[in-house]
Design goal:
By secondary structure, the protein is an alpha/beta fold. It folds into two domains: about 200 residues, Rossmann fold (3-Layer(aba) Sandwich); about 170 residues, Rossmann fold (3-Layer(aba) Sandwich). It is built from 14 helices and 16 strands. It has an eight-stranded mixed sheet, sandwiched between helices. The chain has a six-stranded parallel sheet with strand order 13-12-11-14-15-16, sandwiched between helices. It has a two-stranded antiparallel ribbon with strand order 5-6. Strand 5 and strand 6 form a beta hairpin. The longest helix has 25 residues. It holds the Pfam family Glyco_transf_4. This is D-inositol 3-phosphate glycosyltransferase. GO terms for molecular function: hexosyltransferase activity. Keywords: Glycosyltransferase, Transferase.
């Protein structure tokens, strides 16, 4: 199979879109498929997993490169001759690629990963929200199939008028993120740093940006015996730091690979603050690491956290409920351990191999559909 992956985000930018694209490319390489990547020109490597990376012009917006429409896209696709187009979180670049694929008779799969409704609500953009959803509908209706990561995002897409939808979640590295990592020297050393006097460590992992709502952790002020650890960076770093004054916080910066695994292993509780997540990859990583998760009852976490079993869900707008959930887990070590074990069990069937196998079956589905449509004509 020849797969053209068009992504609005790629290395060196690291986020949920980039991570899922990398795992898809790893899987395609392992299975012997051929692929290329088209992405914004932001310093990407010349190749990844043996696949060539093509960069097209972009502009910077909120520290992210945004790919611009370019005649290169059609030329690159025509030169490669893909069997299927994979559009990761399509916006300007992805929309152009889907249109080009349609002109070429190449079927396309669009991966939905941005909560347009949540972004518009948070910014008070009522009229803009309607316009944005019209654009989302136009982009995704151009694709043969849209893959939604959660029930909440599927509902939003169907409400917006997108018709051809299936579910596709995200995988998690069950080896890298594992409860046994707590015994590694890196995790033990970090634990001693975060909890010098036996404090319960509450951790957050993710970008520090307005939509992540990390400032909500101010609700933990005054809970005794708590140490807060934050992994990540972003445009809201200084503003969040001001909001968290008076709370013991260790800023760990951006981490990846085994350093990130050690950070999860050093936590006792994982706190997810954003209510606009289409999925919530860090929730899965926390569960794989054996941690109970506290998250809003909104978006992706609804599918990932079973309330009272492997974590606690709170009302999305209620910071007091966030505080109460964390406080309950801080007080009860046995409950933390029980929920952490349940979280690990919950993700055992979600390895990247399993999830990417589901994705290639979606590819095959749209390819067969295109062949059948051509035969009818």
């Amino acid at each position: 199979m020849r797969v053209a992956v068009v992504s609005e985000s790629f290395l060196p930018t690291v986020n949920g879109v980039t991570t899922s694209v990398l795992r898809v490319l790893d899987h395609l390489a392992e299975e012997g498929h051929e692929a290329i990547v088209i992405c914004p020109d932001a310093g990407a490597p010349a190749e990844y997993a043996g696949f060539r990376i093509h960069q097209v012009p972009s502009v910077a917006y909120r520290q992210f490169p945004v790919g611009l429409p370019s005649p290169q896209v059609q030329r690159i696709l025509a030169g490669f001759g893909p069997d299927v187009l994979h559009a990761a979180s399509p916006f300007f670049l992805g929309a152009q690629a889907i249109a080009a694929a349609n002109r070429m008779g190449v079927p396309s799969v669009a991966i939905y990963q941005t909560d347009v409704a949540g972004f518009a609500r948070r910014n008070g953009l009522g009229v803009t929200s309607a316009i944005a959803w019209k654009y989302v509908r136009w982009v995704h209706e151009g694709a043969d199939l849209t893959l939604a990561p959660s029930a909440a995002s599927e509902y939003d897409l169907r409400t917006a008028g997108v018709s051809r939808i299936a579910r596709w979640g995200r995988g998690v590295d069950l080896v890298r993120y594992h409860p046994n990592k707590r015994r590694t020297s890196a995790a033990v050393a970090l634990r001693e740093r975060l909890s010098p006097d036996g404090e319960t460590v509450v951790g957050y992992v993710g970008r520090i940006a307005p939509e992540k709502q990390v400032e909500r952790l101010r609700a933990l002020r005054g809970i005794g015996g708590v140490s807060l650890a934050i992994v990540g960076d972003g445009p809201s770093r200084d503003a969040v730091a001001r909001e968290l004054r008076g709370i013991p916080v260790t800023w760990l910066g951006r981490l990846g690979g085994e350093d990130l695994a050690a950070a999860y292993a050093a936590f006792d509780v994982f706190a997810h603050t954003g209510s606009e997540e289409t999925f919530g990859q860090t929730v899965q990583e926390a569960h794989a690491s054996g941690l109970p998760v506290v998250a809003p009852r909104a978006g992706g976490p609804i599918d990932l956290v079973e309330h009272g079993v492997d974590g606690l869900l709170f009302r999305p707008s209620d910071d007091r409920a966030l505080r109460a959930a964390v406080a309950m887990l801080v007080r009860d070590g046995a409950l933390r351990r029980r929920m952490g074990e349940a979280g690990r069990r919950a993700v055992l069937g979600r390895s990247w191999d399993v999830v990417c196998g589901e994705l290639t079956r979606h590819y095959e589905r749209v390819i067969l559909g295109a062949v059948a449509a051509t035969a009818v004509r």
